[in-house]
Amino acid sequence: MSDLSSLRTPSQRIAWSTTIIVSTLVFIFLIAPILAIMPLSFSSGSYLTYPLPGLSLRWYDDFINSPRWMNALKNSLIIGVASTALSMVLGTLAALGLAQWKSRFKPLVLAFVLSPVVVPGVITAVGLYFFFAPIGLTGSYLGLVLAHTALATPFVVITVGATLQSFDTNLARAAASLGASPLYAFRRVILPLILPGLASGALFAFATSFDEVVIVLFMAGPEQRTLPREMFSGIRENISPTITAAAVILTTVSVILLATLEALRRRNERLKGG
Amino acid sequence: MTAPSATSANASIEMPLKRQLKRVERARQFKALGLILPLLVFLLFTFAGPIAGMLWRSVEDRDVRQVLPHTIAALAGWDGKNLPDEEAFAALVSDIQAARAAGTLAVAAKRLNYALNGFRTILTSTGRNLKGAPERGTAKETLTRINPAWRERATWTAIRDAGGPVTSFYLLAALDLVRNADGAIVSAPPDQAIYRNVFARTFLISLSVTVLCLILGFPVAYLLATLPPARSNLLMIFVLLPFWTSLLVRTCAWIVLLQSKGVVNDSLHWLGIIDEPLRLIYNRFGVCVAMTHVLLPFMILPLYSSMKAISPAYMRAAASLGAPPVTAFLRIYLPQTLPGIGAGSLLVFILALGYYITPALVGGAADQMISYFIALYTTETANWGLASALGAVLLLATVLLALVYGKLVQGQQVTGGMKN
Predict the structure, then answer these.
(1) Does residue B39 belong to the interface with chain A, where contact is any CB pair within 8 Å?
(2) Together in a domain, B168 and B276
(3) Which positions, given as ranges, span the membrane (chain A) (predicted)?
(4) What pLDDT does A6 receive?
């Protein structure tokens, strides 16, 4: 350990070992619950206990053959994709605008745009429930997509905004001086360079919608129940192994999203030459 | 942009150029604003408007006014010291009869029952027993005969105070305060006062979770910031994977682990540490463990970025000047992490304040936080005024803390401290 050899005094070594031991315990605390739930979904028994009586895929079979769960999966995907698309359009435009806008109101506008992340979910949900009910937007896909878009857009603004910050505006000027129209310059010069930022923004937006449950609890009718919503009622009633199968599916989606983000980050660092 | 000094020779050329530049710049700014505008309009409709609507509902009071309009009008000049005059009684009789015919009496009864327990019965029984219009001048007699409550001053002040169109009733109720018959603000009777308790509990749980996150997160952030990037990037997965895993999955996992036949109890039993399963979930312990698990990454990430910015040279300098490691840590390192500690703690605390899902699933009846009551009054009992008032108090606390947070992270990268 290069880190240990550079430590001279015994007390420094003790401090460093303590840091490592405590951190290891915290890492176990963070990861163990997620790992512990996975094998249970492959159990052949119907109790959520170890040791497993045997291995089987019956709970995945249960999940796939259940109209309730498949409908929830479908809803999660529809609402997730739709709100991602909408928040990408609104968020990217706003990030482009914010990058150029010079005004003393800018911090205020930025705070407003980011506020859906900070305001407690229940407050947003209650407000939307009162607001959308009279105009028939509760119990509808459109209402949920609009609400999820509001929650997801701040992440798009942050991510795309961060990419634009490192973007060299001289490149756009160079394109203009070479005769490119603004739209052409955007499509051929700016877009390819900020594409990784856009992609991470989309992933954040999708993850936000895919994991959201409080607003769905208030606003979704029986037709619009999403995966987290089904899990919520499942956990409330009685945790069956089918829920653990759903959990594994959700976790797999998270891992894919995380891995894609990491790949984008690495690509970005490589391009920067860092 | 600095303009060259204007001499008389080139002034005539420069002025139009300057103006032209200004015009181009102004057009650019308009275009920028035009790009932001769609999102602002969208958020007005899907976020700011709904929240403003909720805030309005916390002070709006129109139900009684709509159902008993003549009574409210007749009570407008009432001094509140004695019983109202015959005119008010007559107005009430006609209002009740009209409301009964229209089927709206229950709306007023529900609102008045919040103000005075038992008002629902008073109003419905009166409505049931009113037969035809009483003779002129006998309304008071008729009403007090049907229900002696109409002889009480409090019954009438309740109607007057619920007359709207705005009221402080719900906001006061959210803080366990009521107006007494003389209009003074006093504490609610102990059997009805629960919200101060709920707020204190919400605050306490959030604080415990924040402290737990800080204790657990600090060494991890330190380790990640100190290790060479190749290794810390690998370990970062342990922080990011739970961060990205669905809240429901994590909550579900804790139930599986901590239930009475769960992994933890089984292991402890197998090790011979316990005979009977411990109660680890559906109580405060379970809530704190699960919430700490959910919020820990929000502590580690800001701590990590503040520690990453501390140059190791400072610690070496301290050591070379003869500072013992503990002194160097306390006097040199720790103060530099304070912005990170502040940002992480505030972020975790703000997020914890508004938590709903985790306590709802792993907490007992005595562990429900303020969000639970807001949800309860919205969807179950439909006491929207009270739900909105509790929401307003929670929102105020969140906004104040968020302002402090904003000041704290100002100058640092503007990411909102979120998933970045």
Answers:
(1) yes
(2) no
(3) 20-42, 77-96, 108-132, 144-164, 193-219, 239-261
(4) 60
* pLDDT above 90: residue A53: no
Whether residue A234 is predicted with pLDDT greater than 50 in this model: the reply is yes
Q: Could you count the other beta carbons within 10 Å of the beta carbon of residue B319? A: 17
Q: Which whole number is the average pLDDT over B394-416?
A: 78
Whether chain A has a CB inside 8 Å of the CB on B333: the answer is: no
Optimal mutation site among B36, B222, B407, interface A, most CBs of chain A within 10 A: B36
The pLDDT score that the predictor gives to residue B316 is 84
Could you please state the CATH topology (level 3) that the domain comprising A67-273 is classified under. MetI-like fold (1.10.3720)
Q: For chain A, say whether B312 makes contact (Cβ under 8 Å).
A: no
Rounded to a whole number, what is the distance in Å from the CA of A179 to chain B's nearest CA?
18
For residue B158, give both structure tokens. Answer: 């309740």
Residue numbers in A near B29 (CB within 8 A): 100-103
Boundary residue ending a domain (B187, B203, B236): B187
| Among B residues 124-153, those touching chain A with beta carbons less than 8 Å apart | none
User: Which pLDDT band holds residue B2 (cuts at 50, 70, 90)?
Assistant: very low
Domain boundary among B139, B168, B187: B187
User: Per-residue pLDDT averaged across A251-269, rounded?
Assistant: 86
Question: Is the CB of residue B50 less than 8 Å away from at least one CB of chain A?
Answer: yes
B307 and B258 within one domain = yes
B375 and B279 within one domain: yes
- Going by C-alpha positions, the residue among B305, B360, B399, B343 that lies closest to residue A118 is B399
What is the extent of the structural domain holding B216? 195-419
Rounded to whole angstroms, the maximal C-alpha distance in chain A is 72
pLDDT of residue B39 exceeding 50, the answer is: yes
Residues B178 and B230 both lie in one domain: no
B343-378 core/surface letters (b: 16 or more CB in 10 A; e: else): bbbbbbbbbbbbbbbbbbbbbeeebbbbbbbbbbbb
Q: Measured between alpha carbons, how far is B194 from A96 in angstroms, rounded to an integer? A: 48
Nearest to B252 among A90, A158, A235 (CB): A235
Inside any domain, residue B389: yes
What share of chain A has pLDDT > 90, as a percent?
Answer: 53
B210/B156 same-domain check: no
Q: What is the CATH number of the domain that holds B407?
A: 1.10.3720.10
**Total structural domains within chain B:** 3
Same domain, B286 and B175: no
Q: Residue A51: is the preceding peptide bond cis (ω within 30°)?
A: yes
Instruction: Check CB contact under 8 Å for A34 and B249.
Output: yes
Distance CA B225, CA B242 (A): 19
pLDDT tens digits, B162-208: 887 888 889 999 999 988 777 788 888 888 889 999 999 999 999 99
Asked whether the whole model's pTM tops 0.80, one would answer: yes
